[in-house]
Design goal:
Layout: E1 130-134, H1 141-150, E2 156-160, H2 161-165, H3 181-203, E3 207-212, H4 223-229, E4 235-239, H5 243-251, H6 261-271, E5 281-282, H7 289-305
Parallel strand pairs: 1-3, 1-4, 2-3, 4-5
Length: 310
């Protein structure tokens, strides 16, 4: 029987007939037989129940065309054998999180720079250093720090605490309008930011110099915070010219960086407490910026060999 439209569906299995294998729509289509003639010729299939034609044994045990590989016969009483499963390739180790080729700073603070044994003093211009330049307003901290960083023979960054504090635009707590809890909180936040930045630069082989007006008689914003945020390897140096020089330089400033003469005199008097503290002090009253930077290298060379106790 032949359907008028489309190919017939395979018939269900019924008793007395073999399994319906080798189903092909071509079995119901008239035409010459495909492929080599079967030997011996098979009996005609029952109407509506096509069966696979019998063929001569294959000369080799390879799979028949269009069929997958033959499964091995199972032993009596056993289920069909499963093909062996190829072992999976070992998974690659997880890739650690990175930020490109720039490593983040470690959790620990910056250690004191190690000095190899040598007869000559170490060269501070080729050593990776973290320097804290302390001084009153008008001492020339920013100018000296920038010049020193610009003329080193190794990569060096300049980090100014005042610049970082002024990143806050709306709601900036200016200490000139009164030192209160808001200005102190922003100062602490800026110092932590500077400390993280310094450690980040040092972790990538870049020296840094920070400048800040640290008061010796105010521990809440003293050196202890810098040591916590950067580490004991930070080398502090005090830049303290005479009062007349500080007043003259302050008069050349503009904006909120310029203080009143009374405020400048008060800050300068408090900075005098660094004398006798054990920190190196540079009086740059009669020195220009390049001469002060050269003297800073000499002071740092001694600090590397014998770090100050602070």
């Amino acid at each position: 029987m032949q359907h008028a439209v489309g190919s017939p569906l395979p018939p269900p299995h019924q008793p007395g007939h073999g399994p319906a294998v080798g189903w092909s729509p071509a079995a119901h289509q008239p035409g010459p037989p495909q492929g080599p003639a079967p030997v011996p010729p098979p009996p005609p299939p029952a109407p509506g129940y096509p069966t696979a034609p019998l063929r001569a044994p294959a000369p080799h045990p390879g799979p028949a065309p269009g069929q997958g590989p033959q499964q091995p016969h199972a032993a009596p009483g056993q289920g069909p054998q499963q093909p062996p499963v190829a072992p999976s390739a070992p998974s690659a180790p997880p890739v650690p999180e990175t930020t490109g080729h720039v490593p983040l700073p470690p959790g620990g603070p910056v250690a004191v720079p190690s000095v190899p044994p040598a007869t000559a003093a170490p060269d501070p211009t080729t050593t990776t250093l973290a320097v804290l330049l302390i001084g009153p307003a008008g001492a020339g901290k920013t100018s000296v720090a920038k010049y020193w960083a610009d003329h080193r023979r190794v990569p060096t960054a300049h980090i100014s605490l005042d610049d970082v504090r002024e990143w806050v635009r709306s709601g900036f707590a200016d200490p000139q309008t009164g030192w209160n809890e808001h200005s102190e909180a922003q100062y602490r936040l800026a110092r932590r930011t500077c400390g993280f930045s310094a450690r980040n630069f040092l972790a990538n082989g870049i020296s840094c110099i920070l400048d800040d007006a640290v008061f010796p008689d105010r521990p809440v914003v003293g050196l202890g915070g810098w040591k916590r945020h950067v580490g004991p390897g930070l080398l502090p140096v005090v830049l303290l010219p005479g009062l007349d020089i500080v007043l003259e330089r302050n008069a050349e400033r503009s904006g909120n960086r310029r203080l009143t003469d009374e405020e400048v005199a008060r800050i300068h008097g408090r900075m005098a407490g660094w004398y006798g503290s054990g920190l190196p002090i540079i009086d740059n009253s009669q020195l220009d910026v390049p001469e002060t930077a050269h003297l800073l290298d000499e002071v740092l060379s001694r600090s590397i060999v014998s770090p100050p106790n602070w």
